[in-house]
């Protein structure tokens, strides 16, 4: 584990389950994330002067902070939305074995 790197939880959303499944599989195959938890949720948001309400798919990815830029770049290139949601939150504590597993399963930046 790079001492300057840290484990993070990346949240992203997509309009449908199939797109999210294929995209998260691609990220895992490239070792850009160790795991992806996905689930449907109801959303309401303001976009281009209108309020939209619908069901989307949310993914929570477990990865290294140093890989968030690559994940964000791939998302912007492949995502069906003009402005896709990709945010990262540091994992400040947790099961040390789980946090190490995240580093073991992901590539170095």
UniProtKB/TrEMBL annotation:
Q: Where are the transmembrane segments?
A: none
Q: Which InterPro entries match?
A: Ion_tolerance_CutA, N-reg_PII-like_a/b, N-reg_PII/ATP_PRibTrfase_C
What SUPFAM superfamilies does the record tag this protein with?
GlnB-like
Question: What PANTHER family does the database record attribute to this sequence?
Answer: DIVALENT CATION TOLERANCE CUTA-RELATED (PTHR23419), FI09726P (PTHR23419:SF8)
> What family name appears in the similarity comment?
Belongs to the CutA family.
Name listed for the protein in its UniProt record: Divalent-cation tolerance protein CutA
> Species name for this entry?
Amycolatopsis acididurans
């Amino acid at each position: 584990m790079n001492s300057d790197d840290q484990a993070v939880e990346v949240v992203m959303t997509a309009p449908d389950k199939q797109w999210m499944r294929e995209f998260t599989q691609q990220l895992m195959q490239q070792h850009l994330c160790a795991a992806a938890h996905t689930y449907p949720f109801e959303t309401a948001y303001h976009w281009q002067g209108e309020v939209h309400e619908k069901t989307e798919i949310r993914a929570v990815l477990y990865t290294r902070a140093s890989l968030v830029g690559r994940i964000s770049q791939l998302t912007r290139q492949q995502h069906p939305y003009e402005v896709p949601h990709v945010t990262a939150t540091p994992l400040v504590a947790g099961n040390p074995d789980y946090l190490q597993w995240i580093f073991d399963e992901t590539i170095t930046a």
